[in-house]
Amino acid sequence: MLNKLQTLSSEVKQYLVITANYWAFTLTDGALRMLVVLYFHQLGYSPLAIAMLFLFYEFFGVVTNLIGGWLGAHIGLNRTMQIGLVLQVAALAMLAVPDQYLTVVLVMAAQALSGIAKDLNKMSAKSSIKALIPKDSAQSEQQGASFEGKLFKWVALLTGSKNTLKGIGFFLGGALLTLLGFQSAMLAMASALFLVVIASQLLLKKDLGKAKNKPKFNDIFSKSASLNYLSAARLCLFAARDVWFVVAIPVFFVSELAWQHHHVGLFMALWVIGYGIVQALSPKLVNLSTKPVHTVASQWGGILTLSVIALMFALNSELSATWVLVIGLLLFGAVFAINSAVHSYAIVALAKEDGVSIDVGFYYMANAMGRLLGTIFSGLMYQQYGLMACLVASSLLAGLAALLVTQVKVTDGAVTA
């Protein structure tokens, strides 16, 4: 095993370091979310009030992605990744205070730090891939894989494994709360993540992703038509998921179907794990060599839209609402995972080689904005109009994403407007 590691190229070794870093962060991210949800439920907070605790987490994700890409191009992706880890350690430490100091303001501030940390870490990890994949086309062809095929595979593996580990993090959060209690769980995760900070500092390249031509601050706004369309599609795609997934579904399960809270948490964790597995396997399920990326993305966006419409019809039938929602969520999750993987590949393929984090940061800013809007409207629409209204909004947003992505053109990793 040691001999195999020694024979790996420097790019692959860096990819493994980045992936391990991303995995460690993601475990704490999933565990933190579950710890906050379960602990504040114990304190008597309503589901909507708990969801609002994560408002700053999503809002600062928008800001971080917009500025973080520019920062990464200036100081290097290794540094932005490290900053993300350190901020997550600080957020966990903030929540380790005694109960009497654990106010809503403090929790929202800690979630804001965690949101900044998460998106710095994610932007850095995904931007790094483009710089690390070997681009020797002759060598790629001998190995039976094009550069584009490798890029899709590496992006899908990183993203899919992240989502699977986030689901495992949900389990971890519940276990830590039971075994250690809230404050001790925070200290344990902060200590473990601090060790990752030290290891990453020693192993990551110092100039990874640093732009040769330093971008100006106004370069954070994309001037590429394809990138703008793809970013708008990503916003709609994630809003289509979160407008019914974040608040409406958990509350509906508890209030209308009489599920226990731990059953909801377990189902959500398994859903995220399955979603991540499908995402990691998407290069085997989707062939990008025979059709343009925008065509594939639009077709899968149409399938996602139809899955939500079918779910609405099924809920209005005589079928069991429990089974309709469980099966519908599983179907939606699988199709959504493939959509997300194809979109994630497209942004890395579209991004400029020099200063890749600028384009990736702008794109994930749109991703975070979609999650923010989805979270807010999931609570508001469910409270005012119920689950069906959330599903109608989801189908419209998914359909809009499918239309927008038709304007995205990727040709051998280059942009055509």
Automatic annotation (TrEMBL):
It holds the Pfam family MFS_1. PROSITE patterns: MFS. Gene3D superfamilies: MFS general substrate transporter like domains. Keywords: Membrane, Transmembrane, Transmembrane helix. It comes from the Bacteria. The chain crosses the membrane at residues 20-41, 48-73, 85-113, 186-204, 225-252, 264-281, 293-315, 321-348, 360-379, 385-405. Residues 321-417 form the Major facilitator superfamily (MFS) profile domain. GO terms for molecular function: transmembrane transporter activity. PANTHER family: MAJOR FACILITATOR SUPERFAMILY DOMAIN, GENERAL SUBSTRATE TRANSPORTER, MAJOR FACILITATOR SUPERFAMILY MFS_1. This is MFS transporter. It comes from Thalassotalea euphylliae. The lineage of its organism: Bacteria, Pseudomonadati, Pseudomonadota, Gammaproteobacteria, Alteromonadales.
